[in-house]
User: Fold these one by one.
Assistant:
Number 1:
Amino acid sequence: MVAPRDTAHSGTALLSGAPAERPGPDLAAEPGRATEISFAGVGKRFGGNGSGEVVALDGIDLEVRRGEFVAVVGPSGCGKSTLLRLAAGLDSATSGSVAVQTDSVGFIFQDATLLPWRKVLRNVELCAELRAIGRTERRTRATRALTAVGLADFAGKLPGQLSGGMRMRVSLARALALEPELMLLDEPFGALDEITRLGMQEELLRLYRDNAFTALFITHSVSEAVFLASRVVVMSARPGRIHEVIDIDLPYPRTRDLRYEPAFTALAAQVSASLKEAS
Ligand code: ADP
């Protein structure tokens, strides 16, 4: 493991050395697990020089434990993306502190953000290349990651030859090739059709089980949040505060049939009601 970090996100050297022992989904929710991300009294303001200040986040206290899958839901503009950007070190808090215990971080955006002129395999290698991982190692990792998302046969294709769902799987593979300990996902499936989205959710859970990363996942969808997460954080409208944190006590592995079970429906109703209150 790398040394703890306190808001000093360097944005470089995002890979640690030997993979640390990861707890995996079954142990993730266990109380007392080491903390991977800690937000303590975090506030974030934008603007303020006469142009009108926006208080995006206010008094955020949240701990994400190692190996846990945390989903964040909340009304549009409540600061979900800002929260994720702070965890990624892409922005800094105005007040409070954000501590992330690993430098091994993968970031996935709503858009697959692939380079259209690079073949799929070379796109998957990109982040590893930017982190100066040697050619042989990054080729091995990229091939493994592409196989993990079921796209080994498409290594030589260009992104334009793939469907939206496949492009998102390439984006997932690109992050996986970093072998991240922490995966930050900002509405990655928001632009996909419903059938593809359900498939991607199952695929993500399989990757979560196999790779045992910690996940912080932003979504608008209550059903997606409950299906994926071991805890759902409900945020309130601006300024973004944590309204409620709901434990999703459903065992992994999860398959799409889970959605028809009463326990799932009850939790989804609970999150929806909380979201309504928060809005
Ligand atoms: P969400 O992801 O929940 O939709 P965001 O985190 O994107 O919300 O934004 C929270 C609030 O902060 C919004 O009002 C948004 O307009 C504002 N905001 C986000 N980024 C910036 C920025 N770079 N400059 C000014 N305001 C911003």
Note: The chain has eight helices and ten strands.
Number 2:
Amino acid sequence: MSIIIKSEREIGEMRQAGRIVATVLEKLKKALRPGIKTRELDELAARELARLGGRPSFLGYRGYPARICASVNDELVHGIPGERVIREGDLVSLDFGAIHHDFQGDAAITVGVGKISPEAQELMDTTEKALEAGIAAARAGARLGDVSAAIQDYAESRGFTVVREYTGHGIGRQMHEEPQIPNFGQAGTGPELRKGMTLALEPMLTSGDWRTKVAPDGWTVSTADGSLCAHFEHTLAITDGRAEVLTRA
Ligand code: MF3
Ligand code: CO
């Protein structure tokens, strides 16, 4: 296994997959209000996806039963949409992937519903900025460890903790390709980044310990200590200059 370099044409397909992902996530964010069930968000994703002409990448992946992941408060990732009702003050992570002409896009956002605590806001903002720090470090000629370290250093400088057990990943024809991209690591280590690599960076931060647990449903990942957490993700392509974010609308 090695890191797959994409052609311009392939990156073009991923650009379209990424635009679909960004468009759907924006719709989901607008629909997120107290009283809505997470199942309704999944249904909205299905409708938007049909309208935009993409296929869902999570549905059926290792038996995953939905199109989106909706993870609330101490839930970190892989929350299965269902009858849970969103309430004022919830911190909701929405993760979504789409396929366009056999190429994948994958992104996630965390959204505060109504009024949230200053601590929750700080956690969310820091996670999003940690992702931006990772993107800024993801340049041809840099090493993968530079990206991991940039994310970790930013998160920890603000007093938050990066999750160890889940990582970002290469992406292309498959949702998960080489390499794994931890949200912690050493600058100057790991493979060199090259133009045409396509990567999904996804910092996951907690306000407590980094340990997680999986619910009896086999999917929903929560912080082991019940602390609040946040998750942002973008799919990007390495270029000659700054990485191109493929999942911005
Ligand atoms: N963004 C997540 C990931 O990169 C989505 C996977 S959810 C799954 O792993 F259900 F498809 F597994
Ligand atoms: Co991902």
Note: The longest strand covers residues 91-100.
